[in-house]
Design brief:
This protein has 139 residues and is mainly alpha-helical. It is built from five helices and no strands. The longest helix is centred in the C-terminal third of the chain and has 26 residues.
Length: 139
């Protein structure tokens, strides 16, 4: 199986918790700072920002918590991956911003690209049994 070595299940649990809860916190920020996030989204040309900001907030919270607890990993990781695939180039288009914003947007772009890699890894592991998981929707 995928988690046979000593301690690997615990390390995987820690990875899930860190990854999932950071994303859930990010989603919570979409809801708590909705006005600021909607304004930023509108400035980036996002249509229906009033709907999409809270909707993606819920998407991040649900996906993040599900990964952290080990429930519906394929759906959760897929939802996170889709969000990151869309949001990263549209919200953090470092190549299209003024020079004074370029470094900040590039950092956010690279952070999101890294998170996308993590989401894809969890998606790939969605077909194996996860240790310390609630087990709903696994394999």
């Amino acid at each position: 199986m995928a988690f046979e070595s000593a301690g690997s299940g615990e390390v995987f649990l820690l990875a899930r918790a860190l990854f999932g809860l950071v994303l859930a916190f990010t989603g919570l920020n979409h809801l708590l700072d909705a006005e600021g996030m909607i304004g930023y989204s509108k400035a980036k040309g996002i249509p229906a920002a009033e709907f999409l900001v809270p909707a993606t907030g819920v998407q991040l919270i649900a996906g993040g918590v599900a990964i952290a607890i080990g429930a519906f990993p394929v759906v959760a990781a897929g939802a996170i991956a889709v969000f990151l695939l869309v949001a990263t180039p549209t919200m953090h288009d470092f190549w299209a911003v003024p020079e004074e914003q370029r470094q900040s947007e590039m950092t956010s772009f690279l952070k999101n690209a890294t998170l996308l890699g993590g989401a894809l890894a969890f998606l790939a592991l969605g077909s194996v049994e996860w240790p310390y998981a609630v087990g709903i929707g696994l394999f």
